Structure formats: structure tokens, C-alpha cells
Amino acid sequence: MDQLKNVSEQTEDALGKLNRPLKPYIPWVARTLLVSTFIEDAVRIVVQWQNQLYFLQAYRGFPWGISHFFLLANVLTMLVCSGLAISRRQTEVAVGGLFAVIVVQGFAYGLIFDFNFFVRNLSVVGGLLMLLAEGLVAKRRNVFAGLPSMSDEDRSKYVLLGGRILLVLLFVSFVFSGSFTVTRLVVSIIGGLSCLMVAVGFKAKWSAIVLVTILSVFNLMVNNWWSIDFNPTHRDFVKYDFFQTLSIMGGFLLLVNVGPGGFSVDEKKKNF
Question: What span, in angstroms and rounded, lies between the C-alpha atoms of 92 and 31?
Fold first, then answer.
């Protein structure tokens, strides 16, 4: 057991040295990845404006004019809130606006009861909670004379806990979708263990890095929308999955940057 602990510590030290040059850039990359699905969605709505209007009016019963306002409001909200998130300004407003887009679009497009859509968007919400937690932690650090704000500290603990739990739900859809293969089984086991460790906050940062690596490979191999040119509708769905996965990766990278928070095994170990 002691040997295993020593190997684990040595591995963490080695990875820490490799990660040190990249650490200043992780928050910006994480926030950009997190909002990438919203930026892509806004661009897609503008490019496919007439098709979007037709779908809302013909299949969802939106009146003329209301459908125009709905799409315009979504585009503006996603672009403005994404910009706020990347620049780390008005984080609570950005998170609230993007969360509202997820809920409203789910009902408007009739996808709220689709299992894969529901689980994936819960994971995206988990990423938004990580963004909110990052803002709360930064606000706490910027308090005059370094005195922490107890309310922000308490809130960040709960937000980080909720964000960690929701982030890992993506693997639920991964495990229960697609055909069974040995590769899928191996990835599901490794990913499942990493998800469990993230959820309880044990070696959470390194588990998050493992999940980012798995999702990166999975996204490039499975959601390769750029290779689909025979079916534009299928291409849009795969492209949507690709950018949503990028957003969830951004959430995990924010976990790497912020840490698992007070309600975690890692944090409790510091007290002993």
C-alpha cells in the first residue's frame, strides 16, 4: 500500500511539472471551450435562419413574429453571455443567461424529454456551475486585505459539488448508447471510475484530466462532423454533439483550475 502511495505521489509530481507551463492558459481555454456550443448554436441559427423559422412555425406552432423574436433573443443572449464568460465579467449574469437558453430551447424544440439531450445538457449545466464557482472563488480572493467573504465561500462549496456531479452525467449517455464493443467496455470502466472519483472529489483534478483526454479522443473519432457531406441534417446533429462535448471538456478543465471545493475527499484530507 505504501509503495502504491509513493508511486501515485511521484506520478502526480511528474504530471504537475509537465502541467506547470500550461497552467496560466487553462482558465481561458476552459471558458472558451465551455461556451463553444453556445457560439456555434448562435452562428448556426443565423446561417440557417429561414430553416429555423420554418421549423418553429410549421412544427412547433410559433406565430409569425414570435418565432423571429425567439431566435433573435437566443442569438443575442448566447453571444453576449459567451463573451462575458470568456472575459470573466458578470459571471453570474453569463451563467444565468446561458442556463435560460438551455431550458427555453429544450421546451421550444421539443427535446426536453429526449434522454440523450437531457443528460448532455445536464452535463453542460454542470460546466456552467463550474464557471459560476470560478467566479465566486475569484471574487472571494479579491476581497480587500485578503479577508474571505463567508457567503461566497459557502456558496462555492455547494456550486462545485453540484457542478462535479452534473458534469459526470455525460458518461451515462455514453455507456447506454451505441453498440457494445470491447473498446467501449474498457473506456466505460476507466471513465466510470474517473467519474466516480470526480463526483466524490478524490484525486479530482487528475481524474478530470483523464476524462478530458478520453473525451478528446472520443470527440475526434465519433463526432467527426467535417467528414459528413451526404446528409446535412445528420451532419448538424453530429456537429451539435461535437461542440457540446467540447463544452463539457471545458467544465472539466475549470475543475482542474478551481479544484473540487470544500465538499470533497481531497479537501477533507488536508484537514488531517
Answer: 14
Give the helix, strand, coil percentages of the chain, each rounded to 5: 80, 0, 20
- Predicted local distance difference test score (pLDDT) of residue 145: 45
Return the pLDDT at 222: 84
Q: Identity (one letter) of the amino acid at 258?
A: V
Q: Which amino acid is at 244?
A: Q
Supply 21's cell numbers: 507551463
CB 255 within 8 A of CB 208: yes
For position 144, what pLDDT does the model report?
Answer: 44
Residue 235: CB partners within 8 Å, gap ≥ 6? Answer: 225, 228, 229
Mean pLDDT, the chain cut into blocks of 10 residues (272 residues total): 54 60 83 95 95 94 95 97 94 95 92 83 92 83 51 74 87 65 78 87 87 89 87 87 91 89 73 56
pLDDT at position 101 is 96
| Sequence-ordered list of residues with C-beta below 8 angstroms from that of 165, at least 6 positions apart, any chain | 126, 199
- The gap from C-alpha 38 to its chain's centroid, in whole angstroms, comes to 11
Of the candidates 213, 218, 198, the one whose C-alpha atom is nearest the C-alpha of residue 259 is: 198
The whole-number pLDDT of residue 183 equals 74
CA distance 83 to 164: 24
Distant-in-sequence, close-in-space partners of 39: CB < 8 Å, separation ≥ 6: 78, 79, 82
- Whole-angstrom Cα distance, residue 207 to residue 20? 17
CA 80 to the chain's CA centroid: 18
CA distance 64 to 141: 49
Written as nine digits, the cell of 105 is 430551447
Does residue 233 contact residue 13 with C-beta atoms inside 8 Å?
no
Could you say which DSSP state residue 271 is in?
A: T
